[in-house]
Each structure stands twice: as structure tokens, then as C-alpha cells.
Amino acid sequence: MKKEEEKPSIAKLVKEYIETKPCIRELMILGIVNYSALARFIEGEFKKKGIKASTGAIKMALIRLGEELSEERSGFEKAIKNVISKTVIQLQSDLVVITARRDIVLSKIKELVEVAKDSRFFQLTQGIETFTIAMANEEKEKILELLKGGIIDVQEGQTAILLISPLAIINTPGIVAFITTALAVNGINITQIISCYKDTILLVDRRNAPSAYTILEDLIIKMREL
């Protein structure tokens, strides 16, 4: 006899629903959500999908989930604080970012390595069909000549913010999200993000660089004071 498929619990259904609603999830972590109102809303959403669940059961599942998320966040925040507080920040200005076809870059890889050897800043990132090169502006003409016929995009006036972190960054989740959120809420757009072992490199428009640097430097200082 075929075993009847087990139905997911209300707690599991509620958790899956909340995971698709990051804003509500954040409010639960902060403890500023009205669980009764949220439970009634979710009950209505479940009904649309043919899922039967009482408001009370949903509310209890939400409360337990909120407690779990808060504990989880507390552990993450301690780990993030430990990494950010030991991070050193540097700046590299007057950069250009060039995106070129993969085949063209690969055909000139030896020449590119020679340019990289003497460049004050050179980062090569491979995508599926393209390579992106972030480099010192003084190398721009050499690269444009090397990769002519394969250039897809050129972004000038870029600045790199280098974050040099302790080894713990490799196994600490949420560091990049924490950093990028701090910039995003202040209206700073990131052109490129590059990760290289313990280094996190953020490329921004030079006009935003002073603000971005100050935001991240202040963040590091605050983490050291906590």
C-alpha cells in the first residue's frame, strides 16, 4: 500500500513564507511586528493556496520563528563585528574598468600579465562570456590597444575601496551584505565587487568615493568601540 504523502507542518509553511518576505523577516528580528495582524494576513494568503491553518497556530509559529531569527542574528552580528572591527581600509583612485570579450582577452593573456606586473592596480575577473579588467588609468591605452575589436564597455573615473580583513572573513557569512547595505542605504552605487582571499574590493564612481570611504571608515571605528 502506498504511503500517504506527509503534509508540511504549519511551522514549516510559515517559515517558508517568511523567507520570501525579507522586509517582514527583518521586522521580526527587530521585534517590532504585530504578530496577531501578521498571522491574520498570512492566514488569508494560505487560504488562497488552499492551505488550512488557524490564526492562533500561525501566530505561535511566527513567535517561535521570531525568537529563532533573533538568536541567529545575534550570533551573526557578533561574528561580523569581530571581522569588521579588525578590517583596514585603503583607497586607490584614478581607475578605469574595461569589459571585453572572453576570446579576445584569452588570446592576449600573456601580454595582459606583463601589463599587470608593473601596474599599481590591476584586477582581472572572468565572467561567462566576458572578462572585466579594473586597472590604473595610466594603463588604459595599452589595454584598449591590446583588446581592440573586443571591447564591450569602458567605465572611467572609478575609485577602488580596499577592505583588508582578518582570515575569519572567509568563514563568516554576511560580511559583504553588511558592507554593501551600509553603502546602499546612503545612495552609493557599487560598480564592481571583487573578492580576493581576505581582501574585498569595491569599485565606485570617483564622485561617490569620499562619501563611501567615510561611511565604511566610520563603520569600522564604531565596531571597534562596541
- Quote the CATH topology of the largest domain: VC0802-like
> Which structural category fits the helices and strands?
alpha+beta
Major β-sheet strand ordering:
2-3-1-4-6-5
| Number of H- or I-type helical stretches | 9
- Give helix and strand order, one letter per element, not per position: HHHHEHHEEHEHEEH
Content of β-strand? 15-25%
Helix content: 40-55%
Poorly predicted ranges = none
Query: What is the average per-residue confidence, as pLDDT, rounded to a whole number?
Result: 93
Strand and helix map with partners:
Layout: H1 10-19, H2 22-30, H3 35-48, H4 55-84, E1 88-101, H5 102-107, H6 109-118, E2 122-126, E3 130-136, H7 140-146, E4 151-164, H8 175-184, E5 192-196, E6 199-205, H9 209-225
Antiparallel strand pairs: 1-3, 1-4, 2-3, 4-6, 5-6
Helix pairs in contact: 1-4, 2-4, 3-4
In short:
With 226 residues, the chain is an alpha+beta fold. 50% of the residues lie in helices and 23% in strands. Strands 2-3-1-4-6-5 form a 6-stranded antiparallel beta sheet.
